[in-house]
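ARCHIVE RECORD
Type: protein–small molecule complex
Small molecule: nicotinamide-adenine-dinucleotide
Source of inputs: curated submission
Record status: active
Notes field left blank by submitter.
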Amino acid sequence: MDAILVTGGAGFVGLNLVEALLGRGEHVLVFGQEAALPEPAPTRFARLSGRLEVIQGDVRDADTLRAVFKNRRIGAVFPFAAVTAGPAREAAEPHLVLDVNLKGLVNTLQAARDAGTVRRVVLPSSGAVYGESAYAHPVLDEVATPAVPITLYGVTKYAVERAGLRLCGHWGLDAVAARIGATFGPWERDTGLRDTLSLHLRLARAAMRGEAVVIPPAPLPAYDWTYVKDLVAGLLALLDVEEPPHRVVNLASGFDWAPVMADCLEVLRQRFPRFAWRHAAPGETPTIAWNESRPRGVMAVQRAADFGWRPRFGPAEAYADNIGWLLAKPHPGLG
Ligand SMILES: NC(=O)c1ccc[n+]([C@@H]2O[C@H](COP(=O)([O-])OP(=O)(O)OC[C@H]3O[C@@H](n4cnc5c(N)ncnc54)[C@H](O)[C@@H]3O)[C@@H](O)[C@H]2O)c1
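STRUCTURE (tokenized, with ligand):
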């Protein structure tokens, strides 16, 4: 059986993907900066039917990546290692963002090309590629909506899909780019390389600590969230499809969560009774940083349906599932 390489596989999305791949019996290679997966992943993943290898290395080092392909037959690659820089880091360390997100990608694709065994590459793009367009269009469509990324991270993600598809075309690698929407759920933790954790994890942490939080005034800005189990199902669809109907596809929930955030907060309050929340009064500063201050368009999900995938977790299902995860001990998400 050919192995599947996941760079950044010990990160948030990576761990969820690796768990799903191992669950279906795959041989998975995790390549990243971590020497081992965070607890309790090693224990949990050992119960799954697949085979796991964890290889510590840096995607900026082409030789280390080439060595991963030596003596192994790798059939698919998820080159997911990335630095998700906030404003301070992109200003202070632009080379780090470019080197990891772009040079690291090219190194990975070159190693895959040289191996000659890879039949599918799933490129990790992002809803961040819509950038300015997200504030001007109510629906963010892969074809009709111009990509105008704002952040350096968003620029690199657009380059990941454009350069990635171009190079894969030159090199005989069959690639699909997933524009991943803002995601939350199990295994999310601070890797030190993603500067803003999801709003849902930050709210859950506050709830578990029994804090009283003040959120922005109503109405909250429009924003679509994606539950990570939906995302992983979408990534598996992109891995498995024989003939991709599209080369760039949004993977997102496809609806605005702003109107249901109060319901989500109530779920937390009921489960953690010492937790309280309210909207800020006029002129009052919220105690929790919201992920956006301006309403954003929602990512279209019609193209993803052509891959046989559709999101299944509404807010209620996602919160019920995620709270189960939060209460399972030990886990790395609480920090
Ligand atoms: N989380 C989201 O909401 C979201 C949204 C859109 C796209 N994505 C994409 O999904 C992918 C995974 O993101 P995530 O949220 O899991 O991030 P994360 O920070 O949780 O994980 C990133 C992983 O990349 C690894 N990494 C970083 N620099 C590396 C290097 N130089 N060499 C080797 N490994 C390195 C880290 O060790 C870490 O395991 C990224 O490509 C990201 O752009 C994520």
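CURATOR ANNOTATION: Residues 7-8, 10-14, 32-34, 58-60, 80-84, 100, 104, 124, 126, 157, 180, 182-183, 191, 193-194 surround nicotinamide-adenine-dinucleotide (CB under 6 Å).
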